[in-house]
Specification:
The chain has 356 residues and is an alpha/beta fold.
Length: 356
Amino acid sequence: MVNAIEWKDGKVIMLDQSRLPVEVIFIECTDYNIVAEGIKKLWIRGAPAIGIAAAMGIALGAQDITAKNFKEFIAGLDQIFNTLLSTRPTAVNIKWAVERVKKLLKANKDESVSRLKELLIEEAQKIHKEDIEVNKAIGKWGAQFIKDGDTVLTHCNAGSLATGGYGTATAPIFVAIEQGKKIQVIADETRPVLQGARLTAWELMEAGVPVTLITDNSAGALMKKGRINLAIVGTDRTVKNGDVANKIGTYSVSVLCKEHKIPFYVAAPLSSIDFSIPTGDKIPIEERNAEEVTHIFGTCRIAPENVKVINMAFDVTPAKNITAIITEKGAFKPKDIRKLIKKDVNLDEYRIKIGE
């Protein structure tokens, strides 16, 4: 598995995914502003991974704060929180990481400033480690839906590069292979930044998983020919009613799957579920630089100068198009996701079992 981010020797080490697969370059982040730049410029991307990056960025920035007490320390952290929160608005994991850190600090407000700085490092590393275990659990629950001989369609990148390791949407694939199932993966290119072509295809090949790359507009034709058995995608934010925001084009894939009666699964760690938002039309959708569409790698122009561009980074897939949402707690119908926040609920009553 590829390690996209780690805390090492007081620095955040980040794989620059914007250069893959041509170059494998690791960037040493010595300042939280560099971490924020990395999130914004897609050196690191994927909801779980940028949540980890945010936690590490907070821990990194905290080390430079000169404060005599808890109140001064928290005041010094505010700028760090705000900078990281402003980087990417759609993915909820940055907000999740910031809130988790705030809760930790509040619970330890009587500790010394030096100890608080240590706790932030420990918490960032804990978040990283937990994410890997979460991904493996998603893999266990999701692998039951993959049969021997299946071909799985992916969209964008929700593998180890997008997480702490192991991946979300790729986790069921890895577990299925570990179970001895012979499967194939089809990765669509995922315009305009080509995360499927550059990242998913690369990391699956590195892991020895049979993978075939297609253009985004080939998926429907392959479904019609019976060459795709199921689709598994990740999510940047899932909301209370089961609607899902993911990389632009995910909605189109879900519509094609529904038309061809192909199961469409979403791998969603609990950290990416935002129960505060009732429906998907309330999710903020990031719009990015037009140059991502008009140029390849920012250098080769492929569109006329001054052409108008709409470059939405994400779209929303409605719950009605989703077969199941796979979490570390099990696989659920979208309408049952809200059960995960209720206490004293027997989740076995709502988990989707194989064959359903």
